[in-house]
Amino acid sequence: MRLIAIVMLGALAGLAAGCGQKKPPPPQPPVVFVSKPLPQKLVDWDDYVGRFVAVNSVDVRPRVSGYLQSVAFKDGQMVKKGQLLFAIDPRPYQAALTQAKGQEAHAQAELANAQVEYVRAQKLLADKAISEQEYQTRLANQQQASADLIAAQGAV
After folding, report:
1. Domains plus CATH for the chain?
2. What is the pLDDT of residues 19-45, one digit of tens each?
């Protein structure tokens, strides 16, 4: 019992000692530095989640095939009708044009030769120096050379 009395007495002494203390003073407010506001123009903008759809869209298809040398626009850039978009390597086309011009010149020479042969055949037929068949062959050769020239000019 004595032990209980001692414990009780110690608890009462602890409670009495705790009630007599003052509360600590509240902390001082922190120091804040301020400045005058600066007048500025602000752009009011907001972020939104959304989706863009083009007003007009165009399928771009090449008219000729070849290797691209350059691209004349950036992805997403506005382009106008008739504006250059791609540059294709012109060397194969220049070579084909040169070849077609050579074939045209060859066809012109063949036609000139066939016309000379035809005129000669007309004179020889009048003198009965060649047969009708030979004359018809030279006429057909002249007509074929004329058609070959037209085809060669179309290739140019």
Report:
1. 96-155 (1.10.287.470)
2. 556 777 888 999 998 888 888 888 888
